[in-house]
């Protein structure tokens, strides 16, 4: 049976899913209802507790400890488990028709997914300075998998690609122009595969062509970003040169006054490395609450003032961006919530939508109570539709892979 393998290779984890291609390679062969036949995750790389969690479609699961080994060699464990006579789904590696790789940064080189060639690898390598914590691992995954599956097409699917349609006045920073020309310093945006997936699903749910819709999608997970999508194209997004800009997140600060950094250097004697660590890993919900980066913990602590402040700030900042993007779009047909918080936290969705009646966003309290399912949650008389759409980046990677190999 032919399969498409998706790989999401990061610094601390490697995730994979294996989709069955139904029949010949056709663009609809991996449809909305396609579930992976097998998936897994190698977690806590670079620790003594590295483990491989695996799950087959029929409920067979396993968890094994992984000894320390070179990054490139770890990928062999994925092929091993997929070939395992008891737990696996493959008889031979020849059943894998193509591999889709998530790549975080495609710079200005890639406005869409690409078949991996040596030129494409070079371009991904050239984007390493833009995403030093991600692209080297994404490339490591591509190299390792190409070594094992040399005769199979590999496809790179970029987090930044969807946002390449932003106009220059949205992606430029108002700083000296040569920094853009010489060093590519501009806004790129991230979570593009997720925003692209949910916007396409929204059009299907609304039974209207994407080309006629103005959408705002809120990807609220550990990392959070919001995108203004005009007729299927991203025209602005909250993350920028790095995923630190924009919304308040689990541990990331989002938008702050850049002069704060000089203040911290000069008045608090903090080093650039220390500030980087603080703004990326010790800020956001965790930094304000002092207790957790997980919204569930904060919701469970209603008498904790700082937890409540963190939640108020989080929702306020999302609402502020929704207002901005409604103005940027010049109207709005639907607001989309996705990712861990967007899909599962009705209280947060309700708080974000408070006061947005004036732009036509009216939540239905009862419909909003459901969690984790695809659903419209607006009132029948609401001019703007509000949709919860569980994201599925892997499905998008598999579909792009199939399309690029001629589906
Ligand atoms: P990532 O960005 O790592 O992919 P997710 O999209 O899985 O993250 O989102 C993780 C966050 O989603 C958690 O930190 C938590 O705040 C929130 N979350 C997950 N499940 C729930 C739930 N059942 N109720 C409320 N919030 C949830």
Overview of the molecule:
With 407 residues, the protein is of the alpha/beta class. It folds into two domains: 3-158, 2-Layer Sandwich (Nucleotidyltransferase, domain 5); 207-388, ATPase, nucleotide binding domain (Nucleotidyltransferase, domain 5). It contains 14 helices and 14 strands. The strands form two sheets. The protein has an eight-stranded mixed β-sheet, with helices on both faces. A six-stranded mixed β-sheet has the order 11-10-9-12-14-13, sandwiched between helices. Adenosine-5'-diphosphate binds at residues 221-223, 250, 294-296, 339-341, 344-345.
What's the helical proportion of residues? 25-40%
Hetero compounds: adenosine-5'-diphosphate
Task: List the strand order in the largest sheet.
Answer: 5-4-3-2-1-6-8-7
CATH class of the largest domain: Alpha Beta
**CATH fold descriptor of the largest domain:** Nucleotidyltransferase, domain 5
Mean pLDDT reading? 95
What is the tally of beta strands? 14
Order of helices and strands: EEEEEHEEHHEHHHEEEHHHHHEHHEEH
Taken as a percent bin, the fraction of beta residues is: 15-25%
The outline comes out as globular
End-to-end Cα distance: 16 Å
CATH architecture of the largest domain: 2-Layer Sandwich
- Which ranges are low-confidence, i.e. pLDDT below 50, for 5 or more consecutive residues? none
For CATH, the homologous superfamily of the largest domain is named as: ATPase, nucleotide binding domain
Biggest sheet character: 8 strands, mixed
State the domain count.
2
Structural class by helix and strand composition: alpha/beta
What would you report as the Rg, rounded to the nearest angstrom?
21 Å
